Structures are given as C-alpha cells and as structure tokens.
Amino acid sequence: MVTQNKKVVTRFAPSPTGFLHIGGARTALFNWLFAKHHGGEFLLRIEDTDRKRSTDEAVAAIYDGMSWLGLDHDGEVVHQYARRDRHVEVAEQLLAEGKAYYCYCSQEELQEMRDKARAEGRPLKYDGRWRDRPASDAPEGVAPVVRFKAPQEGEQVIDDHVQGKVTVANEQLDDMILLRADGSPTYMLSVVVDDHDMGVTHVIRGDDHLTNAFRQAQLIKAIGWDLPEYAHIPLIHGSDGAKLSKRHGALGVDAYRDMGYLTSALKNYLLRLGWAHGDDEIISEEQAIEWFSLEGIGKSPARFDFAKLENLNGHYMREVESNDSLAAHIRGRVENAIERPLTDDEMAMLVATMDEFKPRAKNLNELAESTLFLFAKRPLSLVPKAEKLLTDDARAMLDKLVVQLEAIDNWELEALEEEIQSFAQVQDLKLGKIAQPLRAALTGSNMSPGIYDVLIWLGKDESLARIRDQVA
Where is this motif: 'KMSKS' region (predicted)? Predict the structure, then answer.
C-alpha cells in the first residue's frame, strides 16, 4: 500500500566495482517501474564509498547499461562519496545526543571477542565494552571508531511489501560502526542519510539487504526520521536452483547486448523474473508501467533460464520489432564482420531480407551472420559442402545458365522463374540439380533462403559476377 498524498521516490544505488550485473538490472527495473506507475521519481545514486574498488570504468558501465535498458533516472546522479561531510555531520549529531560513542578497541581485542563468541557458540558480535565507559579511560595514541548505541531491548519490525512482517530482537544486533578510525563514514550510515536527504519513500532491493534494514531502521528511529517503505526482492538463482553464477547467466548487461539480445526482450524477461501479472508472458513497457505493483513480486527466488530468454527474444524479433528496426540493430554487427560501412542500397537490401531471415534467428548475432553472404567480397570463400556441389559438370551447367540469365532485362521473380525452369527443361535437369550449385556459387554455402530471393537481393550484376567467378 503506497502512502497516500506522498510522492513516490525510489532509487537504484549500485556500487561501481564492476559491470551492471543482471540482478542489479532487475532491481533497477523494478524501482523504475514502481516510480513510473505512481507518477513519482526514480533516482540514481552511485555508492562509491569504497575508494579502493570503485572505478570510473565501472561507473561508465553502469550508465551505459541503464541507458541501453532505457531506464532513465530523474535529476542529477548522486555520488555517495561526495556527501561524506554530511554523513559525518549526522554521526557527530548522534555523538552529541549520546546516541553514539567512541570505541577504542584494537583489532586484537576484536579478534579475541570473536574467537570467544565462536567457542561459546554465540553470535559474532561486538560486546559493547566501550558503550558506557568515560572518556578518561581512552588510551593515548589510539584513533577510535564511532559506534551507534543501538537499543538493547525490544524488537525491530519491518513491514515488508514482499517478505511480510519480519521481526528481529534488538539484542541480536550489536553496535555498528558509523565512522571508521580515519573518520570516514561507513556504508550503513551513508545509505540512511542519503535515502533521507534524497526523499526516498520506497527502498526496493535484494533480500540480501534485509538484515541491513533492521540496523538501518534502528538508526533512522534514533535520528528521528520516518522509515521508508521496504520491499526486499528474492535473489535470482540459476536454472538448477543454485546461487546464480556466470554459467547460469550472472553476467553484465553489456554481455547480453553483445550476445544479441534485444533491449525490449531482456526487459520483459527481467520483469517476469520474480514478478507476475496473471498468466501474461509477453508484456510491453506500457503494460508493465500500468500493471506493476510490489504485491506482484513473489517470495521465492526466481530461476534464470537462457532457453526462455532465447525464446522470448525470438518472439520479439519476429513479432514486435519492425524490419527497419532489426536492420538498424544488426547494421554495426554486419559492418564489423565485413570491415566496411554499408551503402544506402545495401541497407535497403538488408531491410528487405528481414522477413526471410528473422524467423530462424534467436538473437541479433545469428540474424546478422545469416545475412553476411549478401555483402561478401568476391570471389566468395566456399564452405566444404558448397565446394562438393560445384563439380565439373555443375560448373559447366552454370556456364551455360549465366548466358541465359544475362539476357534477362526484367530481373524480377516471374522472369527469373520462367528462365530457370526453361533452362531446366532444355538441359533435361531437375530444378534441384540447378538450384544447389547455383546456391553454392551465389552464397558460398549449401544452405540459404530461396534461390530466387537470393538472385533478387543480390541484383543482376552481382549475381552474374558471382556465378562467373565459379565457372572461370
């Protein structure tokens, strides 16, 4: 239930330590759809407080991935590291109010604490030894951390839109660090402050952050701010139910683009990974915005299935994308393969071939590859099966055929069919005996669309030149 009379504000907050992975893309999509559905705002925050692992290349990859998916954000991008002074300010406020304290524990003491807890079968948590000690006990020359004085009694309750009502006893949560010994703010503090200052009303993220939500709720209440509404989404698993790995599909969004998947198909697939609207499978962006709700998110982990993604991508290629759009999508792939730009005439030919090629292609790479023979350099390189078709007798037959084809003035389907059928009768040959060697000469392969289509696409000059190359 969305709070009445309150503008919805969601955020996507990736860490720039690598590519925009598929799980992050789904989280971004759900946040984007929820904001769009409610006429709210979708914000982007780069959580770059880990300076050693954060890179400009990773930030660029996040921008690129979101742009390709069409997940446009509102307002300026917020960089968490640039707001560190504001985070420190809040920690100092908590210190002044007695809601945080300096902790002078050494690493050795903390390790002893953990070892003892482990030996006694207790949770590995800080024991609060500096919680109420006076400043006069502080050892000289030791830079302290600042810890949050967490409540020790009662419980934290999260009314989660996906997980339902989830409760944890406060005694199970220790006093988390807010500022490190060097004075830098921790992730837990920074997230709370940024979400508040950005006006985030709904925190929609993976359920691996559910434990964080309890700690963050403690901190939010101590500061005196309103809690956002939470929705913790089950993670994506592999098709075998195991944790998602690269072999399952835990790749960057850029990898799916490189593999030839359409943006529209991938977004539709990600939408259905853990969210449902009845039995609907093919869902347009407009429908997704209209229908999306947090109540539609399931509680069980979704399973990533490449076969389903391929089938969905094939559907979008056949039924949704226009031929002009498909040709534009594969243009760069074709040009990279032939190492030259396509001419306007060649682009027109590419568009004209889409109806023939797209039913058999599962992705843009396959689609592009199937068209490459149209733009191949002469003389064509022949695959072994095509070479076997071009016997001495077959080449002699093509030598005769090229003379008759050259006489055709109207290079169109009816004229080509009539001429080749007439040639077959005169030579006392079945059409297959002509079509197979002719296909090899025109395409360099033993497989291609209908031979008349190939002749028309290539045009008279190119068709005759390719045949002559093989009979010379």
Answer: 243-247
